[in-house]
Amino acid sequence: MTSAFANPPEKCVSAAFKDEKKLHDAIERLLNRGVPKERISIIGRNFQSEARITGFLTHKEMILDGVATGAIYGSLFGSVLSLLTGVGVLFIPFLGAVVAAGPLGTALLGATSGALYGALGAGLGSALMSLGMPQEKAAIYQTRVQAGEFLLAVEVPADKAGETFLLLQSAGGEEAAITDMQIPSQPEGELTTRDQLSPEIKADLSEEAQQAFMESYNQNLSQSQEKTNALIQAWEHIKRLFDRDEKGIFSKRKSQ
Asked: Does domain 186-256 have CATH number 1.10.1740.70?
């Protein structure tokens, strides 16, 4: 039987949650409806301390044009985060350190131009807007996350958007919305051509830097089998090899 979620998602359904338990219940209901966990994203500041981090790796702090990540990654148990993929810690302007999971967190980590650099480092609201969320709703979500609430976003086919909207509302979600926000993602496995790089990554790299990024990403992915870690290492590799030009693009190879 073919899943209704086998086709590429066409809509993004989002809501803010004041309570972590209600957020957890909403995600469980989505999973029970057959929504793949890879289509669910959350961002929040005040996840409860019973979430224990084990087997984590700590990378040295790196700066991506206003996005700093202490990059604590690992398996999280005892909280809603254990249900999702790609958990990490990001630093977002005006919000500070946030926990992000799912494709939206990975997109924010990977974007130095399309989502954050190009938004002049203006924070989560501008990042969401650059991905296609209406300005009014993006501003509301930034304010709510800043106040300690949680943002839940789920990518679904257009014909599932209405029922997903009602599900989030009935689970306690507020400011629910159906938008055309598109969360970029890298393909599974190694990259074989530069065309596979997400647009927000390509926009910040010259062709030479794109090739270097791709080679580093593939090398690190083969070693760790973890996309987020490979993404971080690829950016560190680029910053070791290149400086930005007058347009803000990594294109000027550093002298060895």
From this structure: yes
